[in-house]
Recover the amino acids of this structure.
C-alpha cells in the first residue's frame, strides 16, 4: 500500500485514492490528426521499466487530481507533485 | 538428425522409474541439453515461459522447424507460469474468444501423452458462485454462446452449489450478497504449472530446439531494410530472420528497442496459498461478484487469486489492501477459513492490452512476432503456442487467433471480453 | 513417570500452576510457561510425528518457529492445524494431535511408504501416474497429502480485528538487540512500536545462561521491559509476529490472543518512518545420515529446554558442530549434570576459547556424525574421522547438532533489500537497504552479546561451513528438508536431470516449500547445489523470501470486514418502508439496496411485476428514484463543458428546461446517459444513472483538473441532498393535485422536460418532468429529512387512485416497451449511439466533443455493426432468455447478435424483446432466430418500441 | 464491550458547500462565517458556526440545524456571483461521535490516518477514510467526530456496533 503525497493533504494511504492511469500524450486536434495518430493517442501509453508519470485522484480526501512520478520497479515516488506539504 | 535426438529422450513410465530406482536413479538423463549458443537460427524465441516454450515445441512438431533457439534471461518456467493459479477453462463470452479457449482446454487434456510428462491434469470442473442478478444475466449470455462452440456451462441451484462445495456456508439469505445460484463449467481443470513448463522444454529439446538459460536479450536488431535481423544478448549477437517475443510483462521493454509502440501496460496480479490441509474442496470455486477464486491443490493448499493491483508495476509485490479485500470476500462465503492459515503469497507482472484481450501477431517490423496481453494466459498456452507457431511458419494467422491480431486497433474494433478476470 | 525429564528446579515455568493436556489421546501434565513441545519432552515423549512422504518417525527438533518436524492440530475452542508444537503455549485442557499419521506416530500405517522409498524420489510423479490417467491416482494422492484436517467451522466465539498503527520506529524482535534499540529510540522521545513473536521478551537470552555487566541477563531484560512500559510513546507487543514487510515501510503484525475482550487475533498494519530488524538468528541443521531420527535436535534447542523449561531432553548427549556456539551448549549441559558423551567437531583446529568452555569433555576434532543408531529413539551416533580412520559408535540418547547460524533475514529480504554471502559467517547477511530500514544484532550477523549491549569485543564464532557430511560408510538418508522429506540424493537427482537453478531445485524437490519455509534447511540445499556445481554460494543465491514469515490465520487478515462489512451498502429513507411493505430487495448499482418488486402474499414475480406495470400504464404508481446520481454545476464555462462531455448540445437550454443526453468516453464507448437541466443562468443540474454516478464524477473532475484547468466549472455532488418520489401513470397529475402544490401542473405551463421549484404537500420541493416509462410522470425531489413524510403523503393522496409502489423489475419492463436505453443491457462496449438508433443525439453542429472522432474512425472501418431492434417471438407466449444469441438461421455457428432484454408486455399481451442484431436496422420485418441449447426461437424483427411510438403520453 | 467507548449517531447539521477563489468567496460571505482558515485541513469557529478548509478552493460551513434558514438567507446560494458556488448540502452528511477512553482504538480500526495528537490536533479537520468510506474527520470532546454520506449511515452504525462489540 503506497503512501501517496497529495498536494493539499500531504501523505495519505493509497486506499484513499483512485488511480487515474499514466499521463499519455496531449490530445491532438481531432479534426487534424491522422487516423494512426488518433489511435496511437488513444491506445499507446508509456510503459517504462522505471519512472512513469501517472494521475491519481484523492477521491476519499480533498478531491484533487494530481500527478506523481513513480518508479515501476521499486514503487518509490521519485517526484512528488508541486506544493506537497 | 531428428531420429537420434528422439532416442536421447528417455521415456518416462512407471517401468523406467523402477528400472532407475534399482540403479539408484543415477542414470536419468538431463531433461534438456545445454548446447553451445550458435550465432544464428531460423527462429529465435525470446522467453522460456509457457507461451515461448509451447511456440518452439509446435514449430518443431507441427511445422518441422527445428533450428530454433529459446533464449531465457533466467531459467525455463521461472516467469509468470511459475506464479499463476493453474486454472484452465473456456467460459468466455464472445465468439472471438470461446473457440480459442475451447481448443486450448482440449489440447491441455491430451498434453500428458503428447509430451510424455505427467501434467497431473485434473478436470475438476469450475463452479461460479453467482451473487447478483446482472452477473447472472452476463453468465447466461456466456452459457448460450459457449454452447455453440461445445463448451459446457450449466446453471444449478443454490442448494446444488452448497452440495458441491460443502465448505461454502456463507452467502445465506440474510447475507450482504446472498448466493443466487451457480454456473457449472465441467470443462475446467487444474494441473501442475512446473510440469507444463518442463514438459514443453523437454519435448521441444528432444525435437532439436535449443533452450539457452541465463541468456538475456538486451535489444532487437533490425536490418537496413527495417526487417528483424536478430537479437543482442548478454552472450553476444544471435541472428535470426524471425524473432518471437514471448516475455509477458516485459514486451514493451523489448519492442521499444525496435522502435515499436504497442498498446500494452504492465500490471501486477497476485496470488496466495494456504497451509496444506486434507481434501475439502474438489471443484474450482469462482466468485465473480465477490472478486476471488480458488482451488485446492493436490498437496492440499488452497490456491487463491483475486483482483489485479491499480497502477503499472514491474515489482512483484503484494498490495495489502487489495489482498485484504480478497481475503475478506473469501471469509464472507467460507467463514471456516478464518482458522486456515496463509502460507505463501506472491505477485507476477503481466501486460494488459488496451481492450484487455491478448495480442498475437507479426508486428510492423517484418519478422518480429509478439504474443502478449495475456492475463489468464496460462489456460491459453497450448492454443497460443500452436497458433503462433502457425503464424510464424506460414506467415498468415491461424483462424483461431485472427481476432487477436494488432489490426483490430486500426479501427478501434476492440474485443471487449468480460471473461478475462474475476476482478470486481 | 509424570514429567520424568523435568529438572528439580529452575526454568521460566510456574511449578505452582500445573496444566493437564492431551496429546494423541494420552493425557499428560505440564506447567504454566511450557510450550506443548517442552511439556512433551518433560514427559519423555520421543516420537511426536511422522514425516510427510516416507512417514518416518520424527521427534521434536527445535524450540521455536523453525521447528520442521512436529506439527500438531489443536481440537476444541482454538482448533487449528499445522502448528509447530514448539509455538503452542500450553494451557489447561489443551488437546493436540500429530498431523498426517494414523493411527498414531508410534504406529503409523503410512510407514509402509518407507519400503518403497527408492521408487519415489523427487519429482517421481512427473514420470508416473500417467496411465490410464491422473484421475485414477489423484484422490488417493490428495488424501495422503495435506497435513492437518481442513477446518469445518469458524471459531464458535470471539472475533478478529485488523487495525492501523503509525510509528517513528518499528522494531521487530525483543531480544537483546531489539530491546536496546527500543530503549534508545524511546528515550529519544520517538513513537516506538516493538513487536516480538515470543510469549515473553528476551529472545535468545531466555535460553542461555548469560550475564550482562555482572547480572543475570534476564534481569537486564526485566528492567528494559519495565522502563519501556513506563513510557507513553511505546507500544510493546508480545505474541506478535511481524510477518510481512510491504512497500513504503508498511509492515504487518499478527498479534495472538491480545488481552482485549473477545478478540482472538489482531492484525496491525504499521506504517513506520524507520524500521529496525532485530529478528535474531536461526541455528541450522547438520546434514548427515539419520539426521531426522527422534532425539537428533538443534544444539541451541537442547540448551533452551534445559535452561528455559528445565527439561533434560536426554541423559547422555553427544554434540556435532562446525562452530564454537555448541561448546557453550555443552558447558550448560555439563553444568546441569547431563553426561556429554562426545563433541564431534568437523573442524581440525578448534579455537582455544571454545575448548576452554568444556574442560574435561571428550572433544573429537575433524570428526563428523555419519549415521544414527536407533529407529524411534536415538541410541548411538556413528563418529567418523574425516582423516578416513575407523569410525566408531558413541552412545547417546540425544544428538545436539549445530551447522552454524543464519541471520533471520526474511523481513529484510521481503523489503527488497539485498543480501550478500559473508564468508566469515558462512551465511547470507543484510547488504543494501532499499527502504528506511536497518538490521541489528544477530539479524545483522552480529552474534556477540557484549557488542550488542555495549559495543564490547567480538568473540570468536569460528565457523567452518559443512553443508553436508560426505564420508564413506555413511548410513541412512541425510535430510535437507525434514518437513518435506527432501534428501541430499533428491537434490543430486534434480541437478542430474538439469533442474540446476536453485529455484528449479526447490520446485522439483519441494525443498523449502513446507510450512517452515526451510528455516533450518534451505542454506544446506544452497550449499549442496554449490558443492555439486562448484560455484560460490553467492552465485547460487537464495530462493525468494515470501510473506508470511510464519503462517497467519486468514481471520486476522480479514479483520472485521467479512460479510456486511465487506461491501458498503446504501439506504434511502424509504428503504425501511419498502421492507415493511414486502418489497423484495435487490442489489442495485453503486451499492444501493432497492426494491425489485412488491409481491402480495402468494404472488409470484411475474404476476407482481405485471400488476405493477398495469398500474403504471392504466392508473398511477410511485417509485423511489433517490439513488439517481445528481450534481450541481456552476461557473462561467459550464455550457461549453457540457457541450464537450455530452454528445448533443446543452448550452442552448433555457432556465427551467432540460434535455436527455449521452456521455461518451474518448474512445467512443458509451459512458452514461442522463438528463441536464438549467436551473438558472449559471446553475445547472445533471443526473446520471445510479450505477455510474461515481464514474461520471471522476470523469468530469479529471477532465476539469487535468485537461482544462483554466475552465471555471464548480461541481457539487447532491445525490444525497435530494431524494425523489416519482409519480407515474395516466393519473399522476390527479395525484399531484391531491398532494396540493403551488406549482401549476398544466402541460402548457409545466411541459415535459422542464423543472419547477415550489411546495408539494407543504414541503420544499423540486419537481421535474422526466419519464423513464413513457407515461406522464412527475419526479418530486425533497430533502431526505422530508422524504419519509413525503412518501406517506403520496401514498395517502394516491390511495383513492389505487396508487402502487413499484420496483426496478417493472421499471425494466416499461422501459423495454418504450425501447429506452439501459446501459446494463444494451450497452456492452461494442455499440455506439447510431447502432442504438440514437443518431439524433450525436450533434452534427459541434466540431468536437468527447468520443466524436473515435466513433467516426470506428465506423469508417466498415466493420459489421450490431444494431438495436425490437423482436417479437412468433409465438406470443414464448419467453426468450436475456442474453440469448441470435445466429444465422438459428444454426449452430457464430452469432449475429444477442437478445438484450425480453419482458411480458401487459399493453401488448405478448412477450417483447430488444436485441442487438447485425445490420438490424435494415432487417425490420424479417425473421431472425434465437439459438438456445435445445431449440431455436423464430422472432420477427421490429422497431425497438412497443408502446406509444409517437410519445404522446409522456408529453401529456 | 471490550472497548470503553460510546458512539452516537448525531444526524445532520446545517452544511453549506463553498467553492471559488478565496477572495471572491470571502467577499461574498462577509462576516456571515468565521474567518477563513489559513492552513489546509483546518477549521475556524465563531458563535456556533464552523468553517472547514477541506480542499483546494473548497470549504464547508457547518452550523446547528436550527441556524440553517438564517445562514442560507445570509449566504444566498442562488444569488451569488458566477465565479463562486454555494450549495446547501446539509442532508448529504450524517455525523457520528465516538467518545470515551478507547475512542482512539475504534478509529485505529476504522481509519488509516494517523490521529495521534502530535499529527492531528484539536483544530484539524479532513476528509479521509472511515470503515472504507470517504468521511470528514475531526476531534470532539473526549473523542472523534466524523461525517459520512447520509445514505451509508445505517451501514456505519452497524459497523460501529461490531467494532465496539
Amino acid at each position: 500500500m503506497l503512501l501517496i503525497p497529495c498536494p493539499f493533504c500531504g501523505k495519505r494511504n493509497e486506499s484513499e485514492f483512485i488511480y487515474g492511469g499514466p499521463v499519455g500524450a496531449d490530445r491532438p486536434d481531432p479534426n487534424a490528426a491522422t487516423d494512426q495518430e488518433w489511435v496511437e493517442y488513444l491506445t499507446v501509453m508509456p510503459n517504462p521499466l522505471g519512472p512513469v508519470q501517472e494521475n491519481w485522484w484523492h477521491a476519499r480526501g480533498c478531491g484533487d487530481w494530481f500527478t506523481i512520478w513513480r518508479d515501476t520497479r521499486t514503487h518509490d515516488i521519485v517526484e512528488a507533485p508541486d506544493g506537497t506539504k | 538428425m531428428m531420429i537420434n535426438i528422439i532416442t536421447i529422450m528417455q521415456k518416462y513410465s512407471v517401468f523406467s522409474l523402477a528400472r532407475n530406482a534399482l540403479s539408484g536413479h543415477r542414470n536419468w538423463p538431463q531433461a534438456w541439453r545445454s548446447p553451445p549458443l550458435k550465432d544464428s537460427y531460423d527462429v529465435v524465441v525470446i522467453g522460456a515461459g509457457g507461451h515461448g516454450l509451447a511456440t518452439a515445441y509446435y514449430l518443431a512438431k507441427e511445422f518441422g522447424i527445428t533450428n530454433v533457439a529459446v533464449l531465457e534471461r533466467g531459467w525455463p518456467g521461472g516467469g509468470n507460469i511459475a506464479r499463476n493459479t493453474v486454472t484452465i477453462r473456456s467460459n468466455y463470452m464472445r465468439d472471438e474468444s470461446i473457440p480459442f479457449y475451447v481448443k486450448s482446454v482440449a489440447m491441455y487434456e491430451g498434453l500428458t501423452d503428447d509430451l510424455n510428462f505427467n501434467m497431473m491434469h485434473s478436470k475438476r470442473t469450475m463452479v461460479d458462485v453467482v451473487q447478483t442478478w446482472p452477473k447472472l444475466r452476463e453468465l447466461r449470455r456466456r452459457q448460450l454462446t459457449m454452447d455453440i462452440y461445445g463448451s459446457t456451462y450449466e446453471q444449478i441451484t443454490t442448494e446444488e452449489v452448497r452440495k458441491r462445495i460443502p465448505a461454502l456456508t456463507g452467502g445465506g439469505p440474510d447475507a450482504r450478497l446472498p448466493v443466487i445460484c451457480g454456473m457449472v463449467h465441467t470443462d475446467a481443470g487444474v494441473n501442475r504449472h512446473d510440469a507444463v513448463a518442463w514438459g514443453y522444454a523437454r519435448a521441444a529439446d528432444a525435437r532439436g530446439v535449443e533452450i539457452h538459460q541465463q541468456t538475456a536479450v538486451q535489444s532487437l536488431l533490425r536490418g537496413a531494410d527495417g526487417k528483424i535481423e536478430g537479437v543482442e544478448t548478454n552472450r553476444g549477437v544471435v541472428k535470426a530472420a524471425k524473432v518471437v517475443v514471448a516475455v509477458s510483462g516485459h514486451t514493451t521493454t523489448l519492442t521499444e528497442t525496435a522502435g515499436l509502440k504497442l498498446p500494452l501496460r504492465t500490471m501486477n496480479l497476485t496470488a496466495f496459498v494456504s497451509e496444506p490441509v486434507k481434501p475439502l474442496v474438489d471443484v474450482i470455486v469462482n466468485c465473480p461478484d465477490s472478486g476471488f477464486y480458488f482451488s485446492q491443490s493436490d498437496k492440499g493448499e488452497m490456491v487463491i487469486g483475486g483482483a489485479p493491483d491499480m497502477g503499472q508495476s514491474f515489482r512483484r509485490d503484494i498490495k495489502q489492501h487489495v489482498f485484504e479485500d480478497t481475503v475478506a470476500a473469501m471469509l464472507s462465503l467460507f467463514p471456516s477459513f478464518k482458522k486456515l492459515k496463509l502460507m505463501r503469497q506472491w505477485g507476477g507482472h503481466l501486460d494488459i492490452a488496451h481492450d484487455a484481450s491478448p495480442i498475437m501477431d507479426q508486428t510492423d517490423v517484418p519478422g518480429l512476432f509478439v504474443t502478449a496481453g495475456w492475463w489468464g494466459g496460462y489456460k491459453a498456452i497450448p492454443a497460443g503456442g500452436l497458433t503462433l507457431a502457425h503464424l510464424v511458419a506460414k506467415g498468415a494467422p491461424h483462424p483461431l487467433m485472427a481476432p487477436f491480431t494488432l489490426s483490430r486497433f486500426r479501427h478501434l474494433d476492440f474485443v471487449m471480453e468480460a471473461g478475462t478476470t474475476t476482478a470486481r | 513417570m509424570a514429567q520424568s525429564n523435568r529438572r528439580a528446579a529452575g526454568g521460566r515455568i510456574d511449578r505452582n500452576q500445573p496444566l493437564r493436556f492431551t496429546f494423541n489421546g494420552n493425557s499428560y501434565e505440564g506447567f504454566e510457561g511450557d510450550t506443548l513441545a517442552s511439556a512433551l519432552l518433560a514427559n519423555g515423549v520421543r516420537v511426536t510425528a511422522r514425516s510427510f512422504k516416507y512417514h518416518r518417525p520424527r521427534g521434536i527438533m527445535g524450540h521455536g518457529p523453525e521447528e520442521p518436524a512436529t506439527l500438531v492440530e489443536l481440537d476444541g475452542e482454538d482448533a487449528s492445524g499445522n502448528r509447530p508444537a514448539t509455538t503452542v503455549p500450553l494451557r489447561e485442557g489443551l488437546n493436540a494431535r500429530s498431523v498426517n499419521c494414523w493411527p498414531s506416530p508410534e504406529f503409523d500405517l503410512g510407514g509402509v511408504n518407507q519400503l518403497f522409498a527408492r521408487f519415489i524420489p523427487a519429482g517421481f510423479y512427473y514420470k508416473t501416474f500417467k496411465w490410464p490417467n491422473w484421475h485414477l491416482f489423484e484422490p488417493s494422492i490428495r488424501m495422503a497429502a495435506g497435513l492437518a484436517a481442513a477446518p469445518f467451522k469458524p471459531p464458535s466465539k470471539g472475533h478478529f480485528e485488523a487495525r492501523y498503527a503509525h510509528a517513528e520506529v518499528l522494531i521487530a524482535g525483543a531480544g537483546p538487540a531489539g530491546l536496546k534499540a527500543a530503549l534508545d529510540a524511546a528515550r529519544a522521545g520517538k513513537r516506538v512500536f516493538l513487536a516480538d513473536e515470543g510469549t515473553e521478551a528476551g529472545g535468545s537470552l531466555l535460553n542461555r545462561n548469560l550475564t550482562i555487566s555482572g547480572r543475570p541477563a534476564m534481569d537486564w531484560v526485566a528492567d528494559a521491559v519495565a522502563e519501556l512500559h513506563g513510557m507513553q510513546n511505546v507500544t510493546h507487543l508480545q505474541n506478535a509476529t511481524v510477518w510481512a514487510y510491504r512497500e513504503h515501510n508498511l509492515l504487518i503484525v499478527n498479534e495472538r490472543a491480545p488481552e482485549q475482550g473477545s478478540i482472538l487475533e489482531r492484525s496491525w498494519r504499521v506504517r513506520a518512518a524507520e524500521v529496525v530488524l532485530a529478528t535474531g538468528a536461526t541455528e541450522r541443521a547438520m546434514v548427515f545420515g539419520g539426521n531426522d531420527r527422534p532425539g537428533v535436535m538443534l544444539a541451541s534447542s537442547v540448551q533452551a529446554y534445559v535452561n528455559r523449561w528445565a527439561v533434560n531432553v536426554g541423559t547422555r548427549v553427544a554434540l556435532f558442530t562446525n562452530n564454537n556456539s555448541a561448546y557453550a551448549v555443552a558447558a550448560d549441559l555439563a553444568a546441569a549434570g547431563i553426561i556429554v558423551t562426545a563433541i564431534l567437531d568437523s573442524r581440525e583446529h578448534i579455537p582455544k576459547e571454545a575448548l576452554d568452555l568444556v574442560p574435561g569433555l571428550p572433544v573429537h576434532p575433524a570428526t563428523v556424525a555419519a549415521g544414527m543408531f536407533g529407529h524411534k529413539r536415538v541410541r548411538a551416533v556413528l563418529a567418523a574421522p574425516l582423516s578416513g580412520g575407523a569410525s566408531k559408535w558413541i552412545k547417546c540418547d540425544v544428538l545436539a547438532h549445530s551447522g552454524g547460524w543464519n541471520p533471520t533475514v526474511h523481513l529484510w529480504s521481503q523489503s527488497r533489500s539485498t543480501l550478500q554471502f559473508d564468508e566469515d559467517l558462512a551465511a547470507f547477511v543484510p547488504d543494501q537497504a532499499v527502504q528506511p530500514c536497518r538490521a541489528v544484532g544477530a539479524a545483522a550477523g552480529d552474534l556477540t552479546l557484549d557488542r550488542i549491549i555495549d559495543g564490547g569485543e567480538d568473540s570468536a564464532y569460528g565457523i567452518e561451513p559443512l553443508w553436508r557430511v560426505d564420508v564413506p560408510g555413511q548410513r541412512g538418508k541425510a535430510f535437507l528438508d525434514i518437513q518435506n522429506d527432501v534428501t541430499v540424493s533428491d537434490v543430486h537427482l534434480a541437478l542430474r536431470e538439469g533442474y540446476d537453478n536453485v529455484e528449479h531445485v526447490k520446485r522439483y524437490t519441494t525443498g523449502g516449500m513446507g510450512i517452515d519455509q526451510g528455516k533450518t534447511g534451505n542454506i544446506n540445499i544452497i550449499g549442496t547445489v554449490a558443492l555439486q556445481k562448484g560455484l560460490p554460494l553467492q552465485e547460487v543465491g537464495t530462493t525468494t523470501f515470501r510473506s508470511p514469515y510464519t503462517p497467519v490465520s486468514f481471520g486476522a487478515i480479514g479483520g472485521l470486514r467479512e460479510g456486511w462489512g465487506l461491501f458498503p451498502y446504501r439506504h434511502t429513507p424509504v428503504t425501511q418502508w419498502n421492507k415493511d411493505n414486502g418489497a423484495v430487495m435487490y442489489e442495485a448499482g453503486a451499492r444501493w439496496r432497492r426494491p425489485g418488486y412488491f409481491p402480495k402474499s402468494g404472488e409470484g414475480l411475474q404476476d407482481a411485476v405485471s400488476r405493477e406495470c398495469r398500474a403504471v400504464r392504466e392508473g398511477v404508481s410511485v417509485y423511489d428514484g433517490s439513488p439517481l446520481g445528481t450534481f450541481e454545476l456552476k461557473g462561467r464555462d459550464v455550457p461549453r463543458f457540457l457541450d464537450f462531455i455530452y454528445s448533443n448540445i446543452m448550452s442552448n437550454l433555457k432556465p427551467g428546461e432540460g434535455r436527455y443526453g449521452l456521455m461518451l468516453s474518448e474512445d467512443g464507448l458509451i459512458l452514461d446517459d442522463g438528463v441536464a437541466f438549467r436551473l438558472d443562468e449559471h446553475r445547472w443540474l445533471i443526473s446520471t444513472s445510479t450505477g455510474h454516478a461515481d464514474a461520471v464524477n471522476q470523469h468530469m473532475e479529471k477532465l476539469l483538473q487535468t485537461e482544462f484547468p483554466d475552465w471555471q466549472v464548480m461541481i457539487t455532488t447532491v445525490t444525497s441532498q435530494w431524494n425523489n418520489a416519482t409519480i407515474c401513470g395516466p393519473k399522476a397529475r390527479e395525484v399531484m393535485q391531491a398532494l396540493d402544490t403551488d406549482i401549476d401542473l398544466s402541460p402548457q405551463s409545466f411541459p415535459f422536460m422542464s423543472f419547477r421549484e415550489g411546495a408539494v404537500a407543504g414541503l420544499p420541493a423540486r419537481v421535474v418532468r422526466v419519464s423513464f416509462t413513457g407515461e406522464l410522470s412527475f419526479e418530486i425531489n425533497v430533502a431526505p429529512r422530508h422524504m419519509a413524510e413525503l412518501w406517506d403523503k403520496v401514498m395517502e393522496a394516491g390511495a383513492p387512485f389505487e396508487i402502487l409502489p413499484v420496483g426496478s423489475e417493472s421499471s425494466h419492463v416499461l422501459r423495454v416497451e418504450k425501447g429506452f436505453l439501459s446501459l446494463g443491457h444494451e450497452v456492452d462496449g461494442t455499440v455506439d449511439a447510431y447502432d442504438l438508433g440514437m443518431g439524433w443525439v450525436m450533434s452534427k453542429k459541434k466540431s468536437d466533443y468527447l468520443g466524436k472522432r473515435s466513433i467516426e474512425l470506428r465506423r469508417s472501418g466498415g466493420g459489421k455493426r450490431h444494431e438495436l431492434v425490437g423482436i417479437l417471438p412468433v409465438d406470443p407466449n414464448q419467453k426468450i432468455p436475456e442474453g440469448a444469441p441470435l445466429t444465422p438461421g438459428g444454426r449452430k455457428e457464430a452469432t449475429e447478435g444477442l437478445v438484450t432484454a425480453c419482458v411480458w408486455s401487459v399493453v401488448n399481451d405478448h412477450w417483447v424483446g430488444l436485441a442487438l442484431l447485425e445490420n438490424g436496422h435494415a432487417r425490420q420485418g424479417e425473421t431472425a432466430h434465437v439459438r438456445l441449447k435445445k431449440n431455436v426461437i423464430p422472432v420477427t424483427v421490429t422497431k425497438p418500441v412497443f408502446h406509444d411510438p409517437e410519445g404522446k403520453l409522456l408529453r401529456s | 464491550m471490550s472497548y470503553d467507548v460510546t458512539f452516537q449517531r448525531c444526524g445532520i447539521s446545517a452544511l453549506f458547500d463553498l467553492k471559488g477563489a478565496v477572495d471572491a468567496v470571502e467577499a461574498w460571505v462577509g462576516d456571515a462565517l468565521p474567518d477563513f482558515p489559513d492552513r489546509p485541513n483546518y477549521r475556524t469557529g465563531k458563535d456556533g458556526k464552523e468553517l472547514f478548509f477541506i480542499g483546494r478552493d473548497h470549504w464547508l460551513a457547518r452550523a446547528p440545524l436550527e441556524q440553517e434558514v438564517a445562514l442560507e438567507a445570509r449566504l444566498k446560494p442562488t444569488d451569488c456571483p458566477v465565479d463562486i458556488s454555494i450549495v446547501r448540502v446539509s442532508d448529504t452528511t450524517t455525523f457520528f461521535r465516538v467518545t470515551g477512553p478507547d475512542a482512539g482504538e475504534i478509529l485505529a480500526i476504522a481509519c488509516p490516518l494517523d490521529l495521534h495528537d502530535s499529527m492531528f490536533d484539536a483544530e484539524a479537520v479532513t476528509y479521509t477514510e472511515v470503515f472504507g468510506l470517504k468521511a470528514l474527520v475531526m476531534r470532539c470532546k473526549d473523542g472523534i467526530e466524523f461525517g459520512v454520506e447520509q445514505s451509508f449511515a445505517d451501514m456505519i452504525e452497524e459497523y460501529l456496533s461490531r467494532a465496539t462489540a
